[in-house]
Predict the structure.
Amino acid sequence: MKSKISIKVLCIFLLLLFLTGCKSGGKNSEQEKEKNTPPKLPEVLFEMETQTLEIMHIIDSVAGVEKSIIEKNKAKEDIEKDTEVPLKTEEKDTTAKDKIDIQMLIINEATIISVLKKEEIESDFIKKIKVPDSTDEVWFEINKQIGEIHSKWNVLEPQLNELNVPKSSIAQFEKVLDLLTINAQSELIIENLFALNQLTNYLANYRSFFKSKTPHEVYNIKYQLRKSVLLSSVEEYNLAKIASTKAAELGSALRQRLIEKKANDVVQKFELSINDLNRQIDSKQFPLIQINGGIAMKNCMLMINVFEGSMQ
């Protein structure tokens, strides 16, 4: 009898051990799964991307602002010649400014703004700007916003360190940011546009360490498209072609995922727009490169809509 009871007790004991093991194993499995799931994309990374592009918009506006100042001074001279009654300096200044469409001059003199607009990037500062006496206030705003990028980086960097982002990548980002800061003090335009665009590539790569609906490669495509237009603006057409080819390769890597989301039309539009961009780079016609770079960027934005679920 005792023997039977002992066997029963032993069986119950073993069963309890088994159940405890299962629960513990399940808990460990859940913890392991949580550990391997990347964290949600931080808001600060998105803010840095947007502000970096907005600074590009402001810097690319400088040439147009400079042109508006030249046009204003010319208009003041014409007013002096045509007016019989002498006007006060302020009156001449106001009349001259009224004759100038600064927004039109900014667009006409811009390198990358037409592409940025396809990304829905605009600067509130530039939208409100009036014809100034100098570009000092524009560069003051640029330097202020670059300072804000430094502050945001101070928030993002610790999160990247926790995720074991390569130290070399972090060091390279900081090197470009420092160079940008120094170049902005010297009021360099094209150098700063390239530096800002380079920062967006690092930020695109950092996206791969976080959970996001849109693959980080889409943001790498955007970087390459901007790069191809910027390189074309300085007549580096061979390098521009390399950048647009890289954009095409990244697009090809996403092709199947887009097709699975029933976005065949987006795939076709993007591929055709890249072909057109390459053709215009070969023709070395910068206005056409700007237009086709913008079209390719618009199609890239359609990819984001697909992945984010805004399109069926």
Summary: The chain has a mean pLDDT of 89. The chain has two domains: 42-203, 212-312. The domain at 212-312 is CATH 1.20.120 (Four Helix Bundle (Hemerythrin (Met), subunit A)). The first helix runs from residue 2 to 36.
